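Risk register update: the risk of archive-format incompatibility is retired. Evidence:
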Amino acid sequence: MSEAKLAMNKKDPGRALCVAFGAIVVLSCLAGLFVAYRFFRGTGAAAAIFVLAMLALFVGAEFAERDRVLRKAGRDVRFVARFLCKDLAVLLALAFVLEFLTLVGSPASSALSPHAWKLKRVVIFWGISFIAFGGISYFFGDDRKRWGRRLSLFVWQLRALALPALVALAFAVVFGLAAAAFARISLPVAFLFFFALAFSVGAIVAYVRGSELSLEAAFLAVLLSSGLFMAAAIPGFHAGLDEQIHYRHSVELSYIVDSEHTLADRVYEMSSKGEGRIINLAPNDSMQWSADDIATYSGGLDANDSFDTVTVEPGYGPELLVINAFGYVPSACGLWLGRLLHLPFSAVIVLGRFFNLLFYGIICAIAIWVTPIKKRTLALVSLLPLSIFTASFYSYDPWLTSLMFLATAMVLRARSERAVLSTRFKVALLLVFLLGLAPKAVYFPLMGLVFLIPRECFRSTRDRVRFILCASAVVAFMAASFALPMLVTNGGSVTDTRGGSDVNASGQVAFILQDVPRYLGIFGNYVVTDYVEPVSLGSGLLWYGYYQGMSRLSIGLFAACAILVSMLFVVLTDYAGEEDRGVSIGARLWTLFCVVITVFLIVTALYVSFNPVGATGRIEGVQRRYLLPVMGCLLALVLSTRIRLPFSQRGMDAFALSVCTAFAFLCSWLLIAVNVLA
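Archived output:
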């Protein structure tokens, strides 16, 4: 045996110290978690201990991957101990800095007051820093320079957007003034709309002309420009569905503990009460918001965002200790930054929305970059008008949708390359699924996609079995988090009072279990004749929440059919050539099975919580935006073909981007600019 192998077989005191340290942290966290839930009933310390428990998953791997530590550890165990303490101290200092900045942005607390500092928040910031540091080091630590170069190249290619931005600026000035004068649309809104439109078109032209601009960069430019208009059109108006609920949870998460709410927050949270229609919300009791209305409403919100109107809600928000809080992280970061910069309340609202849009765009762009095939399909689904609209407001749906697209892209990469997967890739895939499913565990059947990874992607049968067992554990955890609350309470804990006074979730569960064939008939009839009926589906993809949809306009039927035909054309002709090995019949059927089971669970969950017992016909509460997370795998795998048209790949990519851009801005103009802001 060689000296190198002998050295590998020797006990490594540095690695042993890391493992021991991680074990101590895990045991301490488990013990503390038990004590917290036993004596404090899940509040306060429990959240901090839970974060530390998550940290323990990364500690051992993070330090084990650092070669210089391991080389030195073979001679000096104390070096590793000092190194660990140094990192702990640096991250603790970072936690105190984050607490200081939080208090700087707080409307009711002062960073100079010792009583304002929250030890619980510092501990959680410390845990978050550990998780981020450990995760980055584990996944990127060995090759930081290469990843840095990739990021630099991506940023460098964005210089191709400089000319489109200048042209868009001039275009926006001319047409924005004309729209404000003749259509009586607010000048800032008109300027933003025409700038976003011109910049999107310019980005597509720059891409198709063969510049260094990649598809993911062009995609990101189109998405952010079109989404920003939606997010900023009326800052104080809830256009996104249930946005007031998601906004409140985002505020609570941005403070972590002892959240502060001004009068502006409370007004904003209540602004979509009632029937949730625009006609009930406009200041002048009409469908239109004039420039003066917007200025008056936004100015009133800004004026009410003051110290003397603050109320503090002690402890953690009710949604902070549940797993779906992950979906509020991007918008919470935007709110936190907006308060730190002391922006007006209306601008803080837009910044929170934009961070949600930015996270969605970055993850989808990474998905497009990761997959070697079906890039055009993923770009198309990510840029559907409904996708952009959902990502432009407060919601955890963009978190779920984008991470499901990324998971699909990683599966496509494994199937295309047929190379042995590294441990990091497998861990990353399971982590993407786990984080993506956190806000809505009902989508857990989509994890069945991991079974599409070929056998040759694993080192051995034992390696494949271990991976499947880990994936099954994640599925079991998500399935339990979805099903147990319903089964333990016989459906009682999921009753949604917005469904009406005659909704009885426990009675609905009993009805389904007593007559399963009848419910399957109700489900099948609704899905086939309503939910995925082509015209209804096309109209749903053009739905803008409380701004309503294209179906009520004269071109609604044409638009619904046009977007479906365009989608099918792009998806069916998305063939990359040699690297696209195609999809077997078995893989198509398995993917379709996972999608159908997911849709069944979604519809059933809403049927139980939102509909009277035994209701037939239309199932209330089910929305077509719930189909977005499954559309990536459905279109990329089930509808995969080998049809290749005699056109350049860039030309076909540009067509897909152009179709989405045209529909998105058509909806924005007809549903927002003309109908609401004129």
